[in-house]
Amino acid sequence: MKDSGCQSNFISEELASKLNLPVIRESIKLTVNGINVPRSYDTKIVEVEMKFDRDSRVIHALCLPNINITLNLPKLNRVVNGFLSKGYKLADTRLLDGSEDISDIQLILGSKSSYCIPETEILFGEKSIYSRTPHGVVLKGATETILHDLPYLPYAPEVSSSSYISITNRAPDYLPSEDAKFYQTSNIDFGKIEIRNESFVLEGEDDEVSGLVDIEKDVLDSVCDEALDRETSIYSETVEIHTQLVNYVLQKTTRNSEGRLVMPLLWNPRVSHLLGYNFNISEKILSGLQRKFQGNLDDKLKQINVVFKEQADAGIIERIENLDKFKKEHPESSFMPFMGIFKPDRETTKCRVVFLSNLSDKGSMNHNQTMHAGPTINQKLSTSIINLRFGSKLCCFDIKKAFNNIGLEEVDQNRLCFLWFRNLEDGDFSIIGYKNSRLPFGLRCSPALLMLGLYKILILDSTNDSFPLMKLKRTIYQLSYMDNCAFTAETSECLLWMYTMLEDIFSPYKFSLQQFLSNDISLQKEIDKIQETETPTKSKLLGLEWDRMSDTLSTKPIQLDINSSTKRQVLSTIASQFDLLNFNGPYTESSQIVSTQIAV
């Protein structure tokens, strides 16, 4: 029995005599409190060797005539069967006999020797915890509480990696063993460089070092070569993992009945089973939003409510009709807290809901920790801007709600749930649940999935197109930076033809386009006429100011805060100046030099 509330170790005299344990110290006066009744003993300390699978530990224990502890744990058998049904191995095999009574305890392992069986506590459900040890699972807590939370217990790692999401079953070319190999090689010990013939000589008043440390060149070279080889190996492993992820996503991407792409999330099978339920933190953050914005309903909570209503009408999110029933039927489900980002000056999205996929309940893992980020498919921002300048005629556009255009499988939807209020407008703040039917903004893998979706649309599905159309699709993909897309041409006629083809390219996949900008006056007039709007001469282009009429790029005017009175404020106002191509370098570099001379 392992008892964290007891400091010392205890062993029964019967067991000590049977094992003929060596006595370390005799004539020990001992008063024991807490084992039925307080009692005093004249006892001894013995040495106990505890043998495990591949290891052994030696501890010292106090002898007791007997350990009169009997535990009656109603429904223990149901708890044990619940853990076994989900693939867990129990550290105490005696729990498998079906009894609800625990007795005949011969050894108590106190907190002083807890290192013998190291534990990692894992939270599941609302209030339950179990401990993972090298020898199996240790149960903790009241049986009634564990039974209540048992439906929310995730499958054991060895079960989860082969049955849940099933990268191994559904994508044979994706090998978790390779993933594990990558993580193992990430923890590199570069070894030690042996330094020989050390000779330091201190001379003169300033104690200048005149001697040098002699290091044999061949030893240093060999260690450096080994380090470089390992770095190359890490890079190769990373490329291999990313290649497998790309192949997995593209092979498993399908289209639903309306033509929309349905793509799998990039769960990491090594840790995906540890994704937390995260209901508690979602509820707490929602309550915090209510307290923060309730007095300003029209400005904040109402804007978020409008976003959710629009998303529900568009099929981006789906309401969970019976939240309690859903949680019982889907113990693998997980919730995500969120926050609202408000930008009233923006032309398009003035309120964006961002899911906080980096947060989780205590003792659990969050969504970002249990997912692969996937490869970075975007080019550098500066490279993307340069690529836009190779054609004399340019047309740029955005994909409307880009991430939300990609559908998700139901097993992924159930792991992307969130909480909201039942009827905000009528003041009903009771909690209801939603789940994301489409890819949300804020997941670690969302950028990679969006770019892979565009690759599917513009490259893979263009094999049967005519050569001009295929070339147009490839141009759009090469000039894409996330949801910002573009195409170029040398003549107005060619640019107009490209524009007319966009509807046929994207609409079959339910991708909507917006914010068309062009330096071709005739095309821009045609676009403004169709959309019944007037596009300003200057617009944003990947963070820079684009004057369409003169076809020039510039940054926003430098706006340093002259009221900055601390070094933190000075550094903040300097960093807020976005100048990707360093147009204002002579001015901003001077301010950076000045900032280094400011005393903290």
Please report the distance between the alpha carbons of the first and last residues: 56 Å
Structural class: alpha+beta
CATH superfamily of one domain: HIV Type 1 Reverse Transcriptase, subunit A, domain 1
- What is the 3D shape? elongated
- Helix percent reads 25-40%
Mean pLDDT: 81
**CATH architecture label of one domain:** Roll
Computed CA radius of gyration, to the nearest angstrom: 32 Å
* Number of DSSP strand runs: 26
Number of helices in the DSSP assignment: 18
Strand content: 15-25%
Please report the first level of CATH classification, the CATH class of one domain: Alpha Beta
The strand order across the widest sheet is: 2-3-4-1-7
Uncertain stretches:
159-216, 230-234
CATH topology of one domain: HIV Type 1 Reverse Transcriptase, Chain A, domain 1
Largest sheet: 5 strands, mixed
Summarize the structure in words:
The chain is an alpha+beta fold. Among the domains are: 71-104 and 118-153, no CATH class; 272-554, HIV Type 1 Reverse Transcriptase, Chain A, domain 1 (Roll); 555-600, no CATH class. Helices cover 34% and strands 21% of the residues. The protein has 18 helices and 26 strands. It has a five-stranded mixed sheet. A three-stranded antiparallel sheet has the order 8-9-10. The chain has a three-stranded mixed sheet with strand order 13-14-19. The longest helix has 36 residues, at 217-252. The radius of gyration is 32 Å and the shape is elongated. The two termini are 56 Å apart.
